[in-house]
């Protein structure tokens, strides 16, 4: 596996590092297809882009997708799309609205899973017979989950589908999630992880991935042909 571990002094430096990767991909291809994640680190990244990159990134050449979404309306504060819209899309007018492909969390989940599968099939190039993202942005929960595949449903990672319905282990809230075969088919997979509370899982997954691959979904991230980047702040990297 082609794995790179980058440690940054703070979330702003991490945002700069991710932006460099995005610009590199933009230099290679006409349209860059990015799968976004929710969470606090992407929030900081979106704020960084609005403050520093309105002009320096060719926004109309980026197509936006999501790795997962909560089954809520886009106006709900839990919505990954809603968060991205308010922090990023509403503030950068050069983003092409036609290239924003959101998961409709408000729709009936089984129908939406099929619809989003068809959207990825329509708009993404194919490699290994599957849709391929140029950049797959991932977060990691304290419990080792990634996208919306949690340890109690780890078998969903290996589902034959590109997209599945999952449940949060405590609240039971439904979520729509991409599966492992799409995550691992991406050209660049980037874990954005910040905070000391994640340090133990980061250490376990980076240093002993195979040992934890049946316990934490994040340990199942293993690109087929692409590169894997860990972009960590000093807290998340403190046990490495």
From TrEMBL:
Pfam families: Glucosamine_iso (PF01182). GO terms for biological process: carbohydrate metabolic process; pentose-phosphate shunt. GO terms for molecular function: 6-phosphogluconolactonase activity. It catalyses: 6-phospho-D-glucono-1,5-lactone + H2O = 6-phospho-D-gluconate + H(+). Keywords: Hydrolase. Residues 12-230 form the Glucosamine/galactosamine-6-phosphate isomerase domain. This is 6-phosphogluconolactonase. Pathway: Carbohydrate degradation; pentose phosphate pathway; D-ribulose 5-phosphate from D-glucose 6-phosphate (oxidative stage): step 2/3. Belongs to the glucosamine/galactosamine-6-phosphate isomerase family. 6-phosphogluconolactonase subfamily. The lineage of its organism: Bacteria, Pseudomonadati, Bacteroidota, Bacteroidia, Bacteroidales. NCBIfam families: pgl. Hydrolysis of 6-phosphogluconolactone to 6-phosphogluconate. Its EC number is 3.1.1.31.
């Amino acid at each position: 596996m082609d794995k790179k571990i980058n440690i940054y002094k703070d979330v702003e430096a991490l945002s700069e590092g991710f932006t460099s990767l995005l610009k590199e991909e933009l230099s290679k291809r006409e349209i860059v297809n990015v799968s976004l994640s929710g969470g606090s680190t992407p929030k900081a990244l979106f704020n960084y882009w609005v403050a520093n990159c309105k002009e320096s990134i060719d926004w109309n050449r980026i197509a936006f997708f999501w790795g997962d979404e909560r089954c809520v309306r886009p106006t709900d504060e839990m919505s990954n799309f809603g968060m991205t819209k308010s922090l990023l899309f509403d503030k950068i007018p050069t983003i092409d609205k036609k290239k924003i492909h959101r998961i409709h969390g408000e729709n009936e989940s089984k129908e939406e899973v099929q619809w989003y599968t068809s959207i990825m099939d329509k708009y993404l190039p194919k490699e290994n017979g599957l849709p391929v993202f140029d950049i797959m942005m991932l977060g990691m929960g304290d419990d080792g989950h990634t996208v919306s595949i949690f340890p109690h449903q780890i078998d969903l990672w290996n589902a034959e589908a590109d997209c599945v319905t999952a449940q949060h282990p405590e609240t039971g809230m439904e979520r729509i999630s991409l599966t492992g075969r799409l995550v691992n088919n991406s050209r660049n997979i980037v874990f954005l992880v910040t905070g000391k509370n994640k340090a133990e899982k980061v250490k376990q997954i980076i240093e002993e991935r195979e040992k934890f691959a049946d316990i934490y979904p994040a340990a199942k991230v293993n690109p087929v042909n692409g590169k894997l980047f860990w972009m960590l702040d000093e807290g998340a990297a403190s046990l490495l």
